[in-house]
Write a sequence for this structure.
């Protein structure tokens, strides 16, 4: 299977640069994965497609305002640090630039009174391991000094940090937002709950690997990035009961999908766990738990396009993307969405 099989031509002007004022007013393409039939709706119509007894699974991770700007001690040139992964206490794995200026032992000042750091290791891929020292509570300092780590294809400034967070975000730790969830409002969640839909939460901390391009010609040779997830016993019981009752499991976003498929055994039973997953889902994969998926429109040749193609069929997905371009849907993180449903 070739990576080029998942290419589509996307006009640059369709890449959404800013979020809509009203989250639930995004356009929503509805794709029947069995028939290939397509409908054009608004996101708030999602309530009409999910029924009593169904379960919807949301990723409650919260994005770190992880992009920090500072300078070397006694130097003025700007240093940019992007937090990737907390190793232990105040030690973080980071992307930092300019890398050639950041040797082991280099001290960085982000705020004279609040936040400083020292480079304590350099990894093989050039990432810097940094130990922070600070006055106060680290997460509060990040909120004050840090910027949201927006994807590289978004070049406009984000006016409101909260618009790159879901309304239900809870567990701090992501380097990127689970963007399918950005469409939800409290109103939509209340309508689903009133309808008798089970709403449950898992946590997967999204890494920047989600934006890493596939650089190999053959899909099977791609090395998938790893991300940490948590799913608890109560959530597993609800999901297992949903399947036992013949109802459907809806995932919001590819991150929630990866959690469920990682935690489900070959008998179709999901189990509580907390671990890293590097599951790579592409056409030919047999889904063990996920029936339906709400997702945004993804980059050409990306692992995310491959995942949705595995669920809905590559021909259905490539046709849907072609129609989305013609109908001028908004693409990527702040864009419109697609509901992949079954009969």
């Amino acid at each position: 299977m070739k990576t080029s099989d998942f290419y589509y031509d996307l006009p640059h002007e369709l890449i959404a640069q800013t979020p809509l004022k009203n989250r639930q007013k995004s356009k929503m393409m509805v794709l029947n994965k069995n028939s290939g039939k397509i409908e054009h709706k608004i996101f708030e119509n999602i309530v009409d497609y999910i029924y009593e007894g169904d379960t919807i699974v949301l990723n409650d991770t919260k994005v770190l305002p992880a992009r920090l700007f500072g300078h070397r001690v006694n130097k003025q040139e700007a240093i940019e640090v992007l937090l990737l992964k907390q190793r232990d206490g105040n030690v973080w794995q980071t992307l930092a630039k300019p890398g050639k200026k950041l040797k082991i032992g280099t001290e960085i000042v982000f705020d004279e009174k609040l936040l400083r750091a020292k480079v304590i290791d350099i990894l093989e891929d050039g990432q810097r391991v940094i130990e922070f020292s600070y006055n106060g509570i680290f997460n509060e300092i990040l909120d004050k000094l840090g910027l949201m780590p927006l994807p590289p294809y978004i070049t406009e400034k984000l006016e409101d940090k909260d618009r790159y967070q879901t309304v239900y975000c809870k567990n701090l730790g992501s380097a990127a937002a689970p963007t399918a969830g950005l469409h939800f409002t409290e109103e939509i969640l209340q309508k689903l709950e009133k309808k008798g839909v089970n709403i449950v939460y898992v946590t997967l901390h999204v890494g920047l690997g989600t934006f890493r391009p596939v650089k190999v010609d053959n899909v099977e040779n791609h090395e998938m990035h790893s991300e940490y997830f948590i799913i608890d016993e109560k959530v597993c019981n609800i999901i297992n009961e949903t399947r036992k009752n013949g109802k459907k499991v809806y995932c919001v976003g590819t991150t929630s999908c990866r959690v469920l498929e990682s935690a489900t055994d070959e008998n179709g039973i999901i189990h509580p766990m907390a671990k890293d997953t590097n599951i790579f889902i592409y056409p030919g994969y047999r889904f063990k738990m996920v029936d339906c998926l709400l997702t945004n429109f993804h980059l050409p040749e990306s692992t995310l396009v491959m995942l949705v193609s595995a669920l809905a069929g590559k021909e259905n997905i490539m046709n849907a993307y072609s129609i989305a371009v013609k109908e001028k849907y908004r693409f990527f993180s702040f864009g419109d969405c697609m509901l992949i449903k079954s009969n």
User: Anything to note?
Assistant: DSSP finds six helices and 17 strands in the chain. The chain has a mean pLDDT of 95.
